[in-house]
Amino acid sequence: MDTQNTDIELSTEEKIKAAARKVFTQKGYDATRTRDIAAEAGINLALLNYYFRSKERLFEIIMTEQFQQFFGAISPALHDEATSLEDKMQIISSRYIDLLLANPDLPLFIVTEVRRRPQHYLPAIGDVRSVFESAFVRQLRERKPQANPLHFLMNLMGMCVFPFVMRPVLQTMQVVESHVFENLMQERKQLIPVWIKTLLETS
């Protein structure tokens, strides 16, 4: 096998995927054209079609990777038997906020596309039921037997994700500038575990 040619092919394929990830995330599936992706990647349309036969095929690959990134950010922490509940909340909030600061369009993109075809994307999401068998949920039940762990999971994820969904609105309204938002999110890493702990103590 020609290693140099293989490296070039991998480089071109990754360049296309990076461009597709950016364009799909910003525009969504329906508004994206393959020529938009080719232009973003700096290649011609024929080359894009050589690597990925259709927009749908390329989109499926990007969606699977985005789901794995979005949900995979917290899975190790949820299932870690060695860390305390408090440490898990700190780890999860920090990882999610770091992920979303690096990929601010990711949550709105996933929500929009899942609403478009929810059943279609279940395999890409994976077996989310395993979350309810995780060390995190067991620790929650031991701490608050009468509480529904789903509330705490939704609150924890909502506190991390919702500011990024609202970010375009806040910036359009000139409520927060970009650097101010990033500082708020860094503060939020420390505040979210405190808020969740308060919920545990009062609920």
Structure description:
By secondary structure, this protein is an all-alpha fold. Helix 1 crosses helix 7, helix 6 packs antiparallel against helix 11 (178-202) and helix 10 packs antiparallel against helix 11. It is globular, with a radius of gyration of 20 Å. The longest helix is centred in the N-terminal third of the chain and has 25 residues, at 3-27. It is built from eleven helices and no strands. It folds into two domains: 10-53, Arc Repressor Mutant, subunit A (Orthogonal Bundle); 62-201, Tetracycline Repressor, domain 2, CATH 1.10.357.
In short:
This protein has 203 residues and is mainly α. It has helices spanning 3-27, 34-41, 45-51, 55-72, 75-79, 85-102, 106-116, 122-125, 135-143, 149-172, 178-202.
Could you describe the largest sheet, including whether it forms a barrel?
A: none
- Total separate domains: 2
The arrangement of helices and strands along the chain is HHHHHHHHHHH
Return Rg in Å.
Answer: 20 Å
Total helices: the number is: 11
Distance between the termini: 62 Å
* Share of helix, binned: over 70%
CATH-derived architecture of the largest domain: Orthogonal Bundle
The count of strands amounts to 0
CATH topology of the largest domain: Tetracycline Repressor, domain 2
CATH class of the largest domain: Mainly Alpha
The average pLDDT is: 84
Tell me the β content: under 5%
Q: What class do helices, strands and sheet pairing give?
A: mainly alpha
